[in-house]
Amino acid sequence: MKILAIVIVLTITLVFLSGCLSSPAVYDSSEGILHAHYEYSEGWSLNQGCYERVTGYVYNAGNASAEAVQLHFNLVNSRTGTIRDSRVIFIGTVKQGATTTYESLLDGECTQDYDVTFSFEK
């Protein structure tokens, strides 16, 4: 039992020292009548290991509905520029003046630094 407690404490310490947990990065993007606000932050769980949580909202600032709205996120390794994981989030129709929220997880590795890139899919 004592060994298990030591292993757990060392694992938690390693995760915090590896840079896997950090403060959120916040971004805004727009394309035509659509405006997106998103933030991502690193997290860790026993089941998934290290991941990036992306949350945000899409706002329609136009005078008409936007049909079949999709958001595309890439988890990009900061040092190599390679894409580690990607997600396409289908939002659907965003009516005039409406806001839709979303959330997703991107799978990463604890020993790497990542950036999240964003684009609207058509």
Kindly summarize this structure in a few lines:
The chain has one helix and seven strands; from the N terminus they run αβββββββ.
Keywords:
about 120 residues; mainly beta; Immunoglobulin-like; four-stranded antiparallel beta sheet; three-stranded antiparallel beta sheet; 1 helix; elongated
What does this structure look like?
- There is one protein chain.
- The chain has 122 residues and is mainly β.
- The chain has a single domain, classed as Immunoglobulins (Immunoglobulin-like, Sandwich), CATH 2.60.40.
- 13% of the residues lie in helices and 59% in strands.
- The chain contains 1 helix and 7 strands, in the order H-E-E-E-E-E-E-E.
- The termini are far apart.
Shape: elongated
Class of secondary structure makeup: mainly beta
Look up the CATH topology: Immunoglobulin-like
> What are the secondary-structure elements, in order, as H or E?
HEEEEEEE
Give the low-pLDDT segments: none
Taken as a percent bin, the fraction of beta residues is over 45%
* Largest sheet composition: 4 strands, antiparallel
Overall pLDDT: 84
Q: State the share of residues found in helices, binned by percent.
A: 10-25%
Question: How many domains?
Answer: 1
CATH class category: Mainly Beta
CATH homologous superfamily heading: Immunoglobulins
Question: Please, how many helices?
Answer: 1
Give me the Rg, rounded.
18 Å
CATH architecture: Sandwich
Span between termini: 55 Å
Number of strands: 7
What's the arrangement of strands in the largest beta sheet? 1-2-3-6
